[in-house]
Write a structure and sequence with these properties.
- The complex is a heteropentamer of chains A (312), B (210), C (1057), D (250) and E (126).
- Chain A is mainly alpha-helical.
- Chain A has one domain.
- Chain A has twelve helices and one strand; from the N terminus they run ααβαααααααααα.
- Chain A is globular.
- Chain B has a single domain, classed as Rossmann fold, CATH 3.40.50.12280.
- In chain B, 34% of the residues lie in helices and 10% in strands.
- In chain B, the strands form two sheets. In chain B, strands 4-5-6 form a three-stranded parallel sheet.
- Chain B is globular.
- The two termini of chain B are 18 Å apart.
- Chain C folds into two domains: 405 residues, no CATH class; 467 residues, no CATH class.
- In chain C, strand 3 and strand 4 form a beta hairpin.
- In chain C, helix 6 runs antiparallel to helix 7 and helix 29 runs antiparallel to helix 33.
- Chain C has 1057 residues and is mostly helical.
- In chain E, helix 2 packs antiparallel against helix 3 and helix 3 packs antiparallel against helix 5.
- The termini of chain E are far apart.
- The mean pLDDT of chain E is 85.
- Classes of the chains: A mainly alpha (312), B alpha/beta (210), C mainly alpha (1057), D mainly alpha (250), E mainly alpha (126).
- At the C-E interface, helix 6, helix 7, helix 10 and helix 40 of C face helix 2, helix 3 and helix 5 of E.
- Strand 1 of chain A pairs parallel with strand 6 of chain C.
Chain lengths: 312, 210, 1057, 250, 126
Amino acid sequence: MIIEDFDFWLGKAGYFSLTLLIVTFYGLLVGAFIDRTIAKVQGRIGIPYRQPFINILKNFFKRTAISHGVMFYLGPVFRIAGGIGTLAFIPVLYGSEMFSNFSMAGDLFLVIYFMFFGQLGMALGAGESGHPYAAIGIARGLSQMTAYEVPFVLAVISIVIQYDTLSITQIVAAQQGGWQNWTVVTNWVATLAAMLAFLGMMGYSPFDIFLAPQEIPIGPPTEFHSAYLGLMQLNRALFGATKLVLFMNLFFGGATSWPELMIKTLLIYMVAIVVGVAFPRFRVDQGIRFFFKIPTLIGIMSIVYVQMMLVA
Amino acid sequence: MIKSLNTEDTLENAGLTDEEQQLFSNARPQAYEPYPIKAVEDFANWARANSLWILAFGTGCGAIELRPLMTARFDASRFGVAGRPTPRQSSVFVIGGYASVKTLKRIIRSYEQMQGPKFIICLGICPVNGGMYFDSYNTVNQFDQYLPVDLYITGCMPRPEVLVAGIMELQKKIKAGECNGANRYVENFDWYKANQKKVIKNWDMPDYNW
Amino acid sequence: MVVTNTIIDVLLQPLGIYVLALGAGFLIPLFYRVRRGSGVLVFFAALAAMAVIAGLNLLAIINGAPAIDIETAGIKPPFSINLRFGLLEGGFVLAVNTVALLGAWHYLPRLKQQAASLLLYLILVMGINGMVMTRDLFNLFIFIEITSIATYALIGMGRSDNVLAAGFKYVMATSIASAFFLLGTIFLYYQTGTLNIDDIIMNRDLIEGPIGLIATLFLLTSLLVELKPYPANGWGLDVYETADSGIASLISVGVSAGVFFALYKLLPLMDNYLTSIALIGGLTFLISNLIGLKQENTKRLLGYSSIGQMGLLTLAVALLKQTDADAHLPLIVGGLFVNHLFAKAGLFWLAGIVNRKCIGEWSSGVKRSEVLLLGVLITALVGLPPFPGFWAKWELVMLLAGNELFGWIALILIGSLLEAAYLFRWFSYARQQDSEQPDDAPAEASFSFMQIMPVTIAALLLFITGYGMAKTMHVASPEVFLPLVAGFAMWLIDRSHGRLKNLPMLAAVAVGGYLLTNDLEGINRLFSYLLVGGGILVSIAAMYRNDNRRGFYPLLTVLLLSLATLLRAQTSLEFFFSWELMTLSSYLLVTLGRNGVKPALTYLLFSLASAYFILAGFSVAYGATGSLLLADLGNSGDSVAIIFSLLAAGFIIKMGGFGVHIWLPGAYAESDDDFTAILSAVVSKAGIFGLFIIAAHLGVRSDIGLDPGYVLGWIGILTATFGALMAVFQEDIKRLVAYSSMGQLGYIVTGMALMSHLGWVSAMYITVNHFLFKGILFLSIAGVILRTNERLMYKMGGLIKNMPFTFTFVMIAIIAMSGVPPLSGYGGKWMLFNALMEKQWYWITAFAFFSSAVAFLYMFRLLQTVFLGQRKLEHAEIREAPMILLLPQMVMIVGIMVISAYPKLLIDPLSAAIDPWIANTLVWQGTALHAHFGHWNAPMIMAVVAGVFMIPLILLSLFALSMKIQKVEQFNIVYAAERPRRPEETHFAYKFFAHYDRAIGFTVRPRATAFWNSVVEWSHSAGASLRIFYNGNGQTYALFVIMYFVGLFLFNGGLAL
Amino acid sequence: MIKRLFIFMILALMAVIFFNLASNYTENTSLSKLGHYYVEKGPLEIGAPNLVTAVVVTYRGLDTLGEVTVLFISAAGVGLLLRRSRRKQDIDSQDRDNRAEESKNSHKPASEIVETATELLLPMIILFGIYVFMNGHLSPGGGFQGGAIIASGTMFLLLALPESHISRLMIAITESLSGFSYVVVGVLGVIMAGGFLDNRFMDLGTYGELFSAGAIPLIYTFVGLKVGFELSAVLDRFRQYDQNEDTDSV
Amino acid sequence: MNMLTDFPISLIVLCSGLCLILLGLWGMLTQRNLIRIIIGFSLMDTGIHMVMVSIGYVTGGTAPIINDAVAMNEAVNRVVDPVPSALVLTAIVIGLGVTAVMLSFAVRIHKTRKTLMIDKLTESKW
């Protein structure tokens, strides 16, 4: 299969690499932007735009490192492979064959499940570090994940019912033709549930207990440093952007060009930031309960809503 | 890739019980060379200088001066300064004033756990000569007897502005490739360790805290 | 010479039984006076001759000779007394005499002390024979009295303290009953002018009016009371409790048999009262078993069981009569009777040999052989295969179903379950011997051998009769019995070296499995690969233990081969037989575990409940279709929904469904570690197979609509969700994985419930996947437990350094389980979700998502707390798991990898096998599978993931080259500037998800356990309140006897008079 | 009290049932089917004028054999129940004499009148018993009645002379042999006549004579002996046990 | 009709027998002393025997002995039913046997337990 269409695959790989670069770059940039935005809120100037890049470079330029074992070494690799893979299965730009990446390999379920790949690998790496805080952080993170997953999945089911497909490309296709066709308009309930889940997914306050820098020194990555940390920072930019792209595709009509993508994802990101700046941190059980209450209810309503809509 | 333990050149770890020996690495720290290509090294130094992650460990009264550094008034993040809660990820250790023997032990442990290149800034007069605690029974007078210091910011207490100035000075030094305290520490490891052990009586750590 | 021949001829007639018994009985005192031994010899000769005579004559009748009618006094009946020796009579007489002979063997040490006891025993047996054979009402009375008086005297011979009091109560109650019998007889004579039973039956029109009613009720009451119906049976219980085991056994099986047969003979007179009889029998069966739950005294427990069995027999005969199913009588009543006879007698003897007052005391010092016999006898008594009780119960239930008497079926099944509960509770005590005793000393052994021989023979006779019944029911094909035969063969070499036994076991299963399954087709064939092949694969690992493991290999052989027979079952009977065999053998295997006995009991009870649901389902199906073929299940018309529900309930229980799962963690956790792997990876698939059977035959063919399927889907998904949630909070590694198994099976149930092609493929795919990863997980865990001797996860940690292979296997298994691409779990989840969405089961979909997210929690916990984190000091030196454990895991890893990369290899045969039931809806485009909603291209995902994994790996490696990476030890961690002190402090593992517990732990508080505990408590307190009638006062008991008569009179229209 | 009331109510219900029986009872005005046959054919077939005997010994001979068996086993049962345990006997034997002495003192010897009357009456009672069972087929009476009379003689003896000795051995031998002979007679009936316990394997003889009605006198002799000795044995056992108890309690 | 036909002789026996049965049962159920219970049993037994005998009575019949007193050819109309008589004979013996066994139980109980009260003998229950 791969041998036969070698050229095609080479092209795919090439364009995906391009996508990867753009999205990573964009993710780092947007990270800086967000940081500066928060700084503005606090009356500061904030970091320069280049800061995230420098941080990563610095980490890669560290000259000493330690290793707790093979899984510790592979953990960050898993982590970023999860990020890259997730991006690989999402069509980034609508209507562009080349920027559809490898989305023909799977559908929305694949993306949702592949998100766990990196988390699992990372968790294993952090686990091998032998640091109790890493384990605590993971335990918290995973617990919270099960909670925000519920409204998110309900919203996803809702839109899958709405569009009668699991293919992200087709979901985006169904939203073309103006803002009035976006899911956020046609199925605002589902979008609401998904955006609430999004808050948890992005790991900003009030749902950042699993990082808790002062309590459990940044949780899972406590022991990671140097190039490991560099990879993880890359992933944070990449994976964050990937999630934004996914949400954009599902709920905000996708994008047909890179600028559109950037604007949309930035705006989506702002939601998490605004909430994050405004609210203090939840305790982990509070966070979990929160997701099981209002967001889940909205998620349930979204399915009811979409069924009523289809009947009507 | 993972360097195997150099068995010939291991540390004694006399502070540990037999049972604990296997739980701590007994490897001796090694110095690192600059990158063979000058441009790369310069670039790396530039990156290091512009991304100074300070270990969030307030060791003395100077710690209070670190806080305003991140606030709107001083906003050290402009210079790439950020706090990190774990020594693994930090590159700068700010010794905030006097270092008591008890704290010194923790400082040493934390410093050794940082990954090189790593830098120490000593804040205030106390780490220089003991300052007002020069004859205290439990503070060390000359901090650089125990750990390699890259930059002193004297005063009692220096204001945050001075600290910002000091950080900028450190950046300059890093960019110039002059901050190699970590290597100095490794090269004179035995001397440093002897000094440390002289003041720290209950040495129950491994000799080098990886 | 001629005279001698004539005399021998006479003696060989059934009449010879009396002649010999009486003659010998009269002469025994003389012989005994001359020489004690000769008296004993005469005694045994007479008993043996009685059995032989019965046997010879029965054989003749079976071979076609007519029933023998014996006339006395040279006058034709009804003017003289006559006896009949027909098929039923012969069977009863032979059985009773055989048991009496064996019982005499057991009883001999006490019997031979007095000539009187010898002759009493002999005449007692003769009395029973007379009760069975006589055709004269008054003669029957005399035989009843002979039996009674002999019984009284033998009871009085007992040594226990309270035996006299018990005996007196017994005399009081039975003498009133006899008085009733006499009154009934005389008034019947008054009305019919005859005493011959046949004559009376012929002239039953003459029995009329109040006198007829009262006379008949007198007879009925008397016979019923002699059978000890609830609550007029306290006197019987007291005797069972206190009397010597020899006489108690004879009362329980012999006397009761005689009375029962008398009742049967007189039943034509009782046409109007059959309902009363059935009710009394049924209630007695139910209530005495309920009360038995609370009983601690060994022999009294047996008493309750005896009474229950008699109630069942009474119920059976009344219902058979009511439904005009006399033709089934020999099989059902005979089967139940023979079963009760040998099993109960054997149990009484065993109780006498072991001689422990309370069943709790059986937990120490009971010999292995005795425990084995106890197991066999209890198994038979409960009605498990291959014993006669199983076949009889099946036949009875089917017959009742044919007449739509479902209430009675429920009663019988509930009663049987209760009986199993207390009997196996007893067995559980006996199983948990305090310490493994060395083999008995030779001298003692021979003594105990002699003692135990009658019990052994009884057990053997049960096997033989069981086989005979199977033959009669035309299911005794070699295939069905192959598991037992193979298991027996393995048992013969059970004393040999532990590890060596594995190879013949594997060979036996392989050959047997091949013979049994090589002609299967379709889905059954696929299952055979899974169950037999998989079973063999996992069993290889059993070699990692080198201890003797007595009983393990024979039982495992039976288990695995019974799975094979399950697959080839064509009829519901074969299916049920194999199912029960599987249940039984797996139960016994669970008891072999460290603390396996107690959880095994729970397991067995739930399994039996499951089996009874299945039986009920099959019976309804039989009632609806009149056919036992599984293929005909679908033709059940209106009853399809109820059949489906019953069968599904049975399979769900067996799979540990939501709410009925409480057996599962215990059984999985406490059984042997390698057996847990078999239990989870292989045996649990039997439930899935069952579910498939009903889904295929009932769900699809008959188009029963969504409702039962939808309910099933919900059950499945709730099982999955709560299984996962409960797994999250376990500290015990095996319990964690056990709950995980429960959760995974939930997905399969949901997939089956979908009744769509994709749904079934997903279910089957998950099934295969589950086999692979659960096999790996449990075997890995076996290795970990072997090396660490720990089961609590927080006591482990950091084992990745010592057991890298095990860790890797567990990791791969867990990724395959979690559904994270690119490994095989994703395919199952993808198909399941697509199928769910297609079916528009959205809420279930959401739950499925949630539960698979929760599953991450426990999966990570398993890896983290066992293999990662801080290693304990004492685990520093442990080694990798033994090779023999890793080997099957490797095979399974390869399996996971193959189906991950090319799922088509698996899905195509699955799809083809399902195609006959539901048309294929899978669309393949190259390697991509397309469903209505989404698409899935496994090889491409695999390739992409491999690719994206390589990029950062290379990147990291490049930079790593430029660094000095120091390998450090476990305490080289950042620890807030302090140094860790002990691994225990630094290993975050205990209450790993405490915060999660705080958040939503309230959903998994053990409500199901609490519920079932309250069920147990309730039944115990019900039993306690139902037994208040047994106040120990003989007068109260006598009053109950009278009340029985009054009650029967009032119930049967006495008020109208 | 409540219990008594309850029992009273139950028995009252029984009484109601019995009233039902009695009120529906009408006296027979003719013989039942069985009775008719026996009265009509009995004298000819069996040759015994006493039809009850004919019924008891022949028509319902199996019942009678059972009845004998019942007696036999109840005697054996009483013996079994009232046996002295072996261990106790051993202990007892050490000071048996002592106790015998005491027990003798505890029973007053019978007066001479009683003794003499006993000697006089006992043979007559036994003789009468023998008469009754020998003539069972001719006149009211029979083996059981005769046996009972013999046993009443024993009873008389035991009451009058409590210390008198009855030979256990004799009782046992008679018991066993007469019982066994009865069975043998029954088997002879099968071999030489129509069936088990058929009395006609011996000549029926002249109707109404002592040695007639086939084997009935023979059977009744065995029965009478057996019943007599068995009842005696029962009585004797009670007596002996009673004595044991007395000695034990002293 | 006169009293005799309303109350035939056998009915009187029958009623007496039934009353005896009830009396015997009352004794068995209410008396606590074992010996009295046995007496109750005997009463009941006797009652049953009376009932049996009464059943066999044929109006105006005489003893079924076919000799000079009753001619063979008219015996059918003159004698009572011999069957119940035969049965009662057997029943009496059986009753005797049971009574003997009961008594020996009572004797033994008295010896081992030093009591004859039935409500003291309730060790085995439930």
